[in-house]
Amino acid sequence: MAKPPQIVLTPFFRPRDEDAEEQEMYVAGFVDKDAEEWATIQLEAEMVEQVVMGHQTFEVWCDWDGSIQPQPAIDRLYEHVFREEQLKKTALDELVAEAIEQGRNEPNDEILDMFETLHERLLRAASAVADEIARRRR
Question: pLDDT digits over 41-97, tens only?
């Protein structure tokens, strides 16, 4: 009796809509040598992203030009997302302007302390930069 042909399946995982700017669903399953999909399931993007990113630690990097960017603590992940241009840099002054705009309509008793803390930290940062400029000019 002849053996039935062996079917080799390879697992896959991909966005459901690869052209979408923001994913809503992912598809996982198996594909055979003819690219036919087997045993596929759809997974909500929020669930997938929580699992994937839930175990990652991110740091914040402030560049000398005043731009700030998230940075995964794992070097291999950093290299990959940097190469794929998935780490957006934002200028410090733009971040501050956005924080002010987000708090613009908040009652003073809820946000004034936060703005005062932000102001104090910005003053300390500006002072540290001024000190470094002065040190380098000596």
Answer: 999 888 887 877 777 777 888 888 888 887 777 766 667 676 666 677 889 999 999
pLDDT at 117: 93
**DSSP tag of 4:** P
The answer to whether the CB of 16 falls within 8 A of the CB of 26 is yes
- Measured at the CA of 80, the angle between CA 23 and CA 32, to 5 degrees, comes to 60
Q: What does the alpha-carbon distance between residue 50 and residue 122 come to, in Å, rounded to a whole number?
A: 32
d(CA 114, CA 99): 10
C-alpha 13/C-alpha 47 separation (Å) is 14
Q: Is 9 helix (H, G, I), strand (E, B) or coil?
A: coil
Contact 132, 126 (CB under 8 A): no
For residues 98-118, one letter each, b for 16 or more C-beta atoms within 10 angstroms of the residue's C-beta and e for the rest, the string is eeeeeeeeeeeeebeeeeeee
